Amino acid sequence: MYGSKPSARHVLSDVADELRAEGVPALITTATLERVLVARLDEAAVEACGTGGFGYLAGCWQTAHAVVGNLCGPKGRALDAAVREARVGALRTAQALLVSYMGLALQLPDMFAQGGRTGQAIIADALMADDGASALAAVLPELLEQMAARFADDGLPEVVAPIVGELALRTLLRANHSLLQPGFRRVLAALETLTASRPIAQALPHMATFDPGDCAGRRMQTGTALGPVLALSGFPGSDEAISRVYYADAPQRSRQDCEALHVGLRTTTQFLQAAQFEIVSRLVRSGSAERALTLQLTLRTLATNAQRSGMQVDMARVVDDGFADNLAAVWLRLSEPFANDPALQRIDRIDAGWIAQRAMRGASAGGLDDEQGHISTYWRELTRINADRELVDAQLEQLEQLAQQPGAGGGAAAAAAAPFIPDCFFATAAALHLGPIATAARYVDLLKQIARFKKQISQIQAAPEVLAPAQRAGLPALVQRWNDQLQAMERERCALDAQVLDPRRLGAMMVFYRLVMCFLLRQVDAGGAFPRAPFALPDEAGGGAGVAADGWNMLPEFLVEDTVEFFVFCSAYAPDALVDGAAQVGRGSDGGLRTFDDVLPLFAAVFLARPEYIHNPYLKAKLVDILHMLTYRDPREDNDYVDTLGGNMPGSLRLHPCIGQFQAGLDDSALARAYLVPALLRFYVDIEKTGASSQFYDKFNIRYYIARTLRALWARAPRYVAATRQFFLAATEGAGCGGGGGATTGSAARDQRVVEEFVARLMTDTTYLLDESLSKLAVIGEIEKRQRQSAPSSPPPPPPEAEGADGEEGDEARRLQEAERMAQSYVSLAHETVHMLAFLSRLVPRPFQASEVVGRLAAMLNYNLVQLAGPKCANLRVADMQQRFSFSPRVLLSELTSVYVHLGLADSQQQQQQPDAGVARFVAAVAEDDRSYSPELFAKAYAILERWSLKSAESLERLQVFAQRCADAKVDSRLVEYLEQHAPDEYLDPLLATLIADPVRLPTSGNVMDLAVIKGQLLSDPRDPFNRAPLTVDMLEPLPDLKREIRQWRDAKAQEYAAAQPPAAD
């Protein structure tokens, strides 16, 4: 008997007496076996024998199984066939009866006295036993098959549930819950053995413990049947021994040693996730109803852990990173059959309306929503690509009404027959969103925390004298404690490196996001057939299939956001994954599109070219992040300054091959060649207002990335320079190329608006950034000068975080740190903006000479020329300013003066682009700026440029010619003052009080203004300045009669003024 001593005997005297009373021999036969079993399972018998009821049944079954084996084997051949068959039949009957009672013992554990180990513990022991360590383990598969057959229609889920529950409890034990211990392998082997039986695999999703309704959030990984197994992980948050033991000395090890540690852990993780996939896959493949229940469990787990994707996450309330990563890995494997197809032949089966049709509907209506409504609530509240909450609610209400109509389908049959591909696609996307993508964001945060912590420690160690004496005495111990904390953070970072940067993991994600990008592109494809047919960008009318359709608008925003975040993360931390051959999938010959070479460049170009498809401006900004990172040029190696000699030496920084590969993909894309540059310029304008409280500062960072991307494109290929020039010229000449194949935003009217507003924004940004940069550098120079004078040998003060940094020294330290922080940002932005101004003013000067901007532009240039070459330019000298702030005032001065030449002199090439009026207008605007202009200023700038050999002799000569033209064009400021003093009020602009040159009426308020003034105003604020009503340039009403009247009056007054002047002295 199982677990009993050989000498243990118990006489069932009561049963024997009953049988004799009935005239039946006291023998165990097929007729009396059940009565004997019931008596043996009595509590008194269990206690007397010392063997539990289930152990006794299992032992009997084993004995019967062994005898049957002998009878059917060589030993039974000597028996008569009829005798042998009779004996085998009797034993099989006995086995069936034993199986029935074992199942009942599992279903109803209180029905029989246990006495010893429970049935689920005995089976779990056998399932987890090593080879040869358990007699029951060798025959367990056959026992499970017989048990599954017996209870197939009689409560098999209730039979299996205790066994699975026992394995789940054992998984939570420390010896089985760590990848550093062998116990987890036994748990996985046990579940694989259990689910190898298809009937048992079918029973698992129907267990009450498979998806209990009272489990949510963190409890999903401990309170569900498969939760503990999916929680097995090598993430440090799942098993603290990973960082504390396995990576104990990793911060001190070499990179090669750490990689060796990573390989070992990744191999174990690969084995783990392969087993987890096999277990879940068997459930999914066991039947349609079981597939729906498994999917529902997944979606409910994701829905109740939605906080994982938030900014501030209480990790104690949600599943940990390991569980979320394993869940995503399982669904990634399930999606491989259709995601890894090079041609994506089954992409048309993914329905954009899946959310409303499946996730938002209950099982009775053919959906997946649970009784608690977790799933529908999650998908309802998700941010959509291009729909607000009101539109979402209205659309869902309409769909629900249609679903309730007769003949609309639905019900349990519809749920069972639902296609798996869309279910799997959206479940995988959501699992990645809450798993690896959220984990990657926290990984990046950890890296930033480590960098900040290191910096703070070094700053405090460098300036201990600012601490109070008591604090200074305890500084060594405090620093040691900080270093210990830093070491713990470094160990956690090493442990996360093994998981987050795993090439196998990133490659699988990249393959799936190839499918996501193609699915999204297909929704806005004019023909609706991408990728089977080449992508066609819809026209402005939106007539293409799927464009602006409800299905597109209702898609969750995370489909776009996660795709972009994934490629941004890989670009920064794992660029090898981007060019990995396995992740590319397509090869051209097999008809497939390659992820990185083909799909990603198209994806970025399309959704920048049609920004109206995506509502969130920050999501569109992330597309710019991708372009910036994958066209990256190190600013320290810039050598393409406009009309400036020298520059940095290229080649000291080796860029990853993925940058050149991505740029080649852009070059090969006809759509990118036509739309990318105009799209970037348009987004430069549109990002002015995002609706966020931080929009003023956000726009500068985004525009910096746009400027760096454009600079990289211009430096890479002449075609991008030609596209930029063509776009500006077509827009300013009123002959946009929308639909004609040239560079365009898609609309001639929009092209013109973009160019006008871009020039205005560029000019405004240059003014602000230069002013902020130079003022912050002046503050830094002033503070450091005082520090040198007061204590030349003292180290720089600590950051304001340092305890004890108060009083005057603390205030000055805070001012210095704040000025340094802002200067580091503003200086880079200013340099890039001035470079773009210089480059474009040379390429297409006409937009910068327009009457509505030329005055402000000239004033801005003159003011900053004073800062860079005037009497106070010495205030900008800061120690190590090139290394600390990337500030190069000489380059800034050279590029700024080149703008004067580009706009104020017309060469043979420029003569074809513009009339002489534009040059004259700019020269006059520079000379008329009484606040900053002076001929001496240009002489000083010329001397600096010549002294430091910043320009060629030809360029210096052209600057001198321009300066002389300004001097010749200098207007008598007293005449202007005279005209403005004597002009009637109706001749003066009501905003600037200057004499009107070209009067127009504002239809929204009836006021009369100068055309140049109101156009300049509308470029920054498209509203009537008097009543804030919407107003555009095309609404302005010209007043030719008043214009003629003002001109005649001005000429008469000018003659009157000239006659009143005293004659010039001889």
Short summary:
62% of the residues lie in helices and 1% in strands.
Which tags fit this structure?
1066 residues; mainly alpha; 45 helices; 62% helix; disordered N terminus; EC 2.3.2.27; Ubiquitin conjugation factor E4; transferase
Secondary structure elements and pairings:
Layout: H1 13-21, H2 33-40, H3 43-49, H4 53-72, H5 81-107, H6 119-128, H7 135-150, H8 156-171, H9 183-195, H10 198-203, H11 227-230, H12 240-246, H13 255-285, H14 288-303, H15 321-339, H16 354-359, H17 374-381, H18 389-403, H19 411-417, H20 420-434, H21 436-462, H22 469-473, H23 475-500, H24 503-524, H25 550-553, H26 558-573, H27 581-584, H28 595-609, H29 617-630, H30 657-668, H31 670-686, H32 695-716, H33 718-732, H34 748-790, H35 807-843, H36 851-869, H37 881-885, H38 889-904, H39 908-911, H40 916-927, H41 935-947, H42 953-969, H43 973-982, E1 999-1001, E2 1008-1010, H44 1011-1020, E3 1037-1038, H45 1040-1060
How far the N terminus sits from the C terminus, by CA atoms, comes to 136 Å
* Total helical elements: 45
Which whole number gives the mean pLDDT? 86
In one word, what is the shape?
A: elongated
Helix content: 55-70%
Structural class: mainly alpha
What's the oligomerization state? single chain
Radius of gyration: 39 Å
Total strands: the figure is 3
Give the strand order of the largest sheet, numbering strands 1, 2, ... along the chain: 2-1-3
Largest β-sheet summary: 3 strands, antiparallel
How much beta, percentage-wise? under 5%
Low-pLDDT regions: 1-7, 542-547, 735-740, 792-805, 908-915
Keywords: Acyltransferase, Transferase
EC number: 2.3.2.27
Protein name: Ubiquitin conjugation factor E4
